[in-house]
């Protein structure tokens, strides 16, 4: 008998000719194998089982006895053919799926109501954007990839059907139930995106279900609570509401969900829902549009599905032409009602069996002929894959829409000249939006909560008067536009950013008319907030197009494009790095913490202008009281040479203040009467001057009469109890000359060395004299020397007529938004933000926190050419991207391209060194400061405190490692012994997808 019904289905399709479309799944399946399996199941099925295949119930994931008994009853009594799970978590649902599938004689179709992926129902899964946000994306290939990824996750969960895409054309701004669920108001765009998504789903074997036929987009009521009416005539319905469904059917997709809507133009029977209407389901969907796939009702428990008391919704739905009854209010009662309708001749058993056969065919198509239980071990990791994380980020970054941009204010510029405030309306001050803005700029933060009083709100607006630029983040529809905002937009540079449904913008119409810029982020998710902030500062380009019209403000399709001008933040896959391989960095960095090579560290990787790895490990100190985060500020030590002093040198070179062949004595005249008089700038930059590696300037400040014997010893003893480094012990019973050192700041003693430690301001003369008298050997050969850069700093200050730290702050760091990059950080930030270095028991006799570790820099007041700069990885990346960009950043010039190329590309003919930079030694791991995989073009520097950075112009790659390996003592050399820094760098190169 079953063969007759299978033949009947085929004949119906053939008789309909071109009017009907065979779904792609059905067309591509091996019919012989499918029919064999379907026959084997159908022949053994009871009368009840054949009816039960048409029921798909909603299952609660509670594991209590009562719920388990209820679900078991549905399996055993109703013989349900499918199940739709309610909200829960992946592992619980997987375990419940396995349990119910085991209990069911015929494997069940498992469905998902996942319009924006699993996260719509399952906690702890990737949160993709909702459809309206996706509607702003121009590249539909991303929607296709999104469908593929959702399908992959569905297969991991044992899910066969996704009740998506929503193909409703949202043309009603007051629609209470569709809104963000729709791709937009343009039926062609809705169709294109819905089809792309469905192609992704079905290409990976998951049944897509377009909803809510014949179109729920222009309703002002919610079918969950009532029966909405669609008032349009046939012409309008055909060109708008029905258009996406017609295209979807034409493309051969497998599922359609009928909506609980009263559409009098299609069925005049008073208050009959489309889902229960034979003229609509059979007459239009099946016969006119030619749909032959699976037809699902919307949840029959919804108020919109209410039928007359004398009619059972499930019976009516089957009579209308639906195949599967989704979520009936009382499955057991409805099952009985269907049986009674068959007995009474209202429903024909042959129709029921034809539907049953169709369901079985799609079970075969979905792979249920080879059912396997879900593997719960590692399920969360498999669901939340790096690719899923990238795709979620990519979709958000492509969707953020710039609606207004007067005077091209976005991307923001002049960070040093304009004081910026951020006001969070409806969210707190630690939102993801504010956190991301703070990565770009120093912003004052304010918030107006939903419960703020009028007085509190007025106080916030009063404080905003002193700011030049105000960024509003609008997170709620419950706080209306205020007069204060309207006044601010009229006199300040205001940027309005909406994390709401686009239609809400009309409530801010007056402010929008005066604002300099308007950004539409659609949703308040962490990713939407992060990428909105990035767009504002140029971390990403603006690409989105508004998918709906905002009455009186913007038409659908509005959207202004901008260029990317600053570092952005993304996932490794965005720039072609293998995220799985990149995870090895975590274990290497953590190894250093675990083996006490350093208390903590920051690691950052950027490629192609995107920061794709920025993590912190460990703590500020080994007491583990304060964890390292991305705002922790480190002493860069000698990395200062190439990120501070060299910037100033390049600035002076651009200003034609010197040439590389100039003698240093031309700019530091104290050297003219010395053997250093002929040293040129190039020799200093290449470390080929022959100058001594370092000079212990602090010795000049020690009272030599205060002790007897030597300051140093190779062994620890009663006289030398303090360990200095790995091979040296020192005494600490000496005193300093009162003429040179003071415990308090006073006239003549303003050069601060450390806490309660000031040196006479004339000590700078002592330093230059020490340099002048120092030994000069091996000129022309490579010998690394801090003295080279101390002299370069003196040259810069003499030529530029400005202190180097001021020059760098004013001309570079403040303009870059590198507010955590500074000399003498205690002048501008709290001690607690600064990572401690050494507990110096010798020279300064205190724990150094915020004071430079290097003694030579300390005795110059913390600002030296060889050391003194403090920063964090995020800030340092901005400086390094400036190098990669050949002198520009944020759309603003800093250095000429010619100067940038000269300094970053030059290399000494006799050593590995560049002009101020260190470089690799290819093929020689022992001699190279880099990983063995670093190409010859790489330039960078290392720092004694446990820092390094490397810039790769070939791969447009930045690698930064910051640690405080000298805490609590510089004698700790485990960082070098474990090769942490080069191993991390090699890991990055191994992750490059070539």
Describe the structure.
There is one protein chain. By secondary structure, the protein is of the alpha/beta class. It is built from 34 helices and 33 strands. It has an 8-stranded parallel sheet with strand order 7-6-5-4-3-2-1-8. It has a 6-stranded mixed sheet with strand order 9-14-13-12-10-11, with helices on both faces. The radius of gyration is 35 Å and the shape is elongated.
Features:
eight-stranded parallel beta sheet, 994 residues, six-stranded mixed beta sheet, disordered N terminus, alpha/beta, 34 helices, 35% helix
Quick structural summary:
The chain is of the alpha/beta class.
Strand and helix layout:
Elements: H1 2-16, H2 24-28, H3 31-42, H4 47-52, E1 55-59, H5 65-78, E2 82-85, H6 90-103, E3 109-112, H7 131-134, H8 140-156, E4 161-162, H9 187-203, E5 207-213, H10 234-239, H11 243-250, E6 255-258, H12 278-288, E7 294-297, H13 313-320, E8 325-326, H14 331-343, H15 349-365, H16 379-383, H17 386-399, E9 401-405, E10 420-425, H18 432-440, E11 443-448, H19 454-463, E12 469-474, H20 483-491, E13 493-498, H21 509-514, E14 517-520, H22 526-537, E15 568-569, H23 579-582, H24 584-594, E16 600-607, E17 610-618, E18 634-635, H25 639-654, H26 681-686, E19 712-713, E20 722-723, E21 729-730, E22 741-742, E23 751-754, E24 757-759, H27 763-773, H28 786-800, H29 804-816, E25 822-823, E26 839-840, E27 846-847, H30 855-858, E28 869-871, H31 873-884, E29 888-889, E30 892-893, H32 897-905, E31 939-943, E32 947-952, E33 957-963, H33 974-977, H34 980-991
Helix pairs in contact: 1-15, 3-15, 8-9, 8-17, 9-11, 17-22, 18-22, 24-34, 25-28, 25-29
């Amino acid at each position: 008998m079953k063969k007759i019904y299978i033949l009947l289905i085929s004949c119906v399709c053939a008789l309909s000719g071109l009017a009907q479309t065979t779904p792609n799944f059905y067309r591509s399946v091996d019919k012989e194998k499918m029919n064999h399996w379907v026959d084997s199941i159908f022949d053994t099925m009871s009368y009840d089982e054949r009816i039960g295949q048409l029921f798909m119930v909603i299952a609660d994931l509670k594991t209590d006895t009562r719920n388990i008994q209820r679900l078991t009853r549905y399996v055993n009594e109703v013989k349900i053919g499918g199940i739709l799970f309610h909200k829960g978590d992946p592992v619980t649902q997987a375990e419940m799926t396995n349990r119910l599938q085991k209990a069911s004689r015929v494997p069940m179709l498992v469905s998902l109501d996942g319009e924006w992926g699993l996260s719509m129902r399952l906690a702890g899964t990737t949160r993709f954007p909702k459809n309206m946000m996706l509607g702003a994306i121009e590249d539909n290939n991303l929607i296709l990839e999104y469908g593929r990824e959702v399908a992959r996750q569905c297969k991991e969960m044992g899910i066969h059907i996704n009740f998506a895409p929503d193909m409703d054309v949202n043309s009603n701004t007051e629609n209470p139930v569709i809104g963000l669920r729709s791709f937009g108001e343009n039926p062609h765009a809705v169709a294109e995106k819905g089809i792309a998504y469905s192609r992704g789903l079905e290409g990976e074997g998951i049944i897509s279900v377009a909803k809510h036929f014949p179109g729920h987009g222009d309703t002002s009521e919610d079918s969950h609570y009532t029966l909405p009416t669609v008032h349009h005539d046939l012409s309008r319905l055909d060109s708008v509401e029905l258009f996406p469904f017609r295209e979807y059917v034409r493309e051969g997709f497998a599922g359609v969900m009928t909506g609980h809507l009263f559409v009098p133009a299609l069925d005049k029977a008073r208050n009959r829902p489309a889902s229960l209407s034979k003229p609509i389901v059979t007459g239009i969907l099946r016969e006119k549009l030619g749909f032959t796939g699976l037809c699902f009702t919307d949840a029959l428990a919804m108020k919109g599905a209410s039928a007359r008391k004398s009619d059972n919704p499930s019976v009516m739905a089957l009579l209308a032409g639906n195949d599967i009854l989704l979520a009936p209010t009382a499955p057991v009662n409805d099952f009985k009602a269907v049986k009674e309708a068959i007995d009474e001749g209202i429903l024909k058993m042959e129709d029921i069996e034809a539907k049953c056969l169709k369901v079985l065919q799609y079970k075969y198509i979905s792979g249920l002929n080879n059912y396997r239980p879900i593997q719960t071990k590692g399920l969360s990791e498999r669901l939340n894959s790096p690719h899923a994380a990238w795709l979620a980020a990519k979709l958000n970054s492509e969707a953020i829409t710039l609606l207004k941009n007067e005077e091209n204010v976005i991307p923001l510029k002049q960070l040093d000249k304009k004081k910026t405030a951020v006001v969070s309306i409806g969210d707190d001050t630690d939102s993801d939006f504010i956190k991301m803005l703070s990565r770009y700029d120093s912003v004052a933060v304010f918030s107006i909560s939903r419960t703020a009083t009028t007085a509190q709100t007025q106080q916030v607006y009063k404080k905003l008067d002193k700011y030049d630029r105000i960024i509003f983040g609008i997170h709620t529809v419950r706080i209306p536009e205020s007069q204060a905002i309207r006044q601010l937009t009229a006199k300040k540079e205001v940027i309005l950013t909406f994390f709401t449904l686009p239609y809400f913008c009309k409530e801010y119409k007056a402010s929008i008319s005066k604002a300099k810029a308007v950004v539409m982020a659609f949703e308040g998710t962490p990713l939407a907030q992060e990428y909105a902030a990035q767009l504002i500062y140029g971390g990403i380009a603006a690409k989105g197009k508004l998918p709906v019209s905002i009455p009186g403000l913007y038409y659908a399709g509005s959207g202004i494009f901008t260029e990317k001008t600053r570092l952005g933040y993304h996932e490794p896959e965005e720039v072609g790095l293998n995220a799985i391989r990149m995870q090895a960095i975590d274990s290497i960095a953590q190894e250093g913490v675990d083996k006490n090579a350093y208390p903590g560290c920051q690691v950052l990787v950027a490629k192609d202008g995107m920061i794709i790895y920025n993590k912190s490990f460990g703590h500020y100190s080994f007491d583990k009281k304060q964890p390292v985060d991305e705002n922790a500020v480190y002493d860069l030590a000698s990395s200062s040479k190439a990120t501070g002093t060299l910037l100033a040198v390049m600035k002076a070179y651009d200003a034609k203040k010197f040439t590389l062949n100039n003698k240093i004595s031309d700019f530091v005249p104290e050297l003219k009467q010395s053997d250093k008089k002929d040293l040129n700038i190039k020799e200093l930059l290449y470390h080929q001057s022959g100058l001594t590696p370092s000079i212990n300037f602090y010795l000049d400040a020690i009272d030599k009469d205060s002790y007897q014997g030597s300051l140093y010893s190779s062994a620890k003893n009663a006289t030398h109890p303090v360990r200095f480094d790995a091979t040296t012990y020192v005494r600490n019973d000496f005193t300093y000359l009162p003429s040179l050192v003071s415990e308090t700041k006073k006239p003549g003693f303003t050069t601060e060395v450390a806490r309660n430690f000031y040196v006479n301001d004339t000590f700078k003369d002592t330093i230059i004299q020490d340099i002048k008298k120092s030994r000069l050997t091996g000129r022309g050969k490579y010998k690394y020397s801090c003295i080279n850069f101390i002299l370069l700093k003196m040259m810069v200050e003499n030529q530029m007529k400005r202190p180097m730290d001021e020059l760098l702050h004013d001309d570079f760091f403040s303009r870059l938004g590198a507010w955590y990059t500074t000399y003498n950080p205690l002048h501008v930030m709290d001690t607690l933000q600064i990572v401690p270095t050494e507990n110096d028991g010798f020279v300064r006799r205190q724990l150094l926190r915020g004071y430079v570790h290097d003694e030579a820099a300390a005795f110059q007041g913390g600002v030296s050419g060889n050391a003194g700069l403090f920063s964090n990885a995020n800030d340092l990346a901005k400086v390094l991207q400036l190098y990669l960009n050949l002198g520009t950043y944020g759309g603003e010039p800093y250095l000429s391209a010619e100067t940038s190329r000269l300094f970053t590309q030059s290399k000494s003919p006799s050593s590995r060194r560049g002009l101020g930079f260190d470089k690799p030694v290819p093929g020689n791991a022992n001699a190279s400061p880099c990983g063995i995989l670093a190409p010859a073009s790489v330039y960078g520097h290392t720092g004694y405190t446990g820092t390094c950075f490397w810039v790769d112009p070939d791969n447009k790659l930045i690698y930064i490692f910051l640690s405080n390996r000298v805490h609590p003592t510089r004698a700790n050399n485990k960082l070098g012994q474990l090769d942490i820094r080069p191993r991390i760098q090699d890991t990055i190169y191994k992750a490059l997808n070539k």
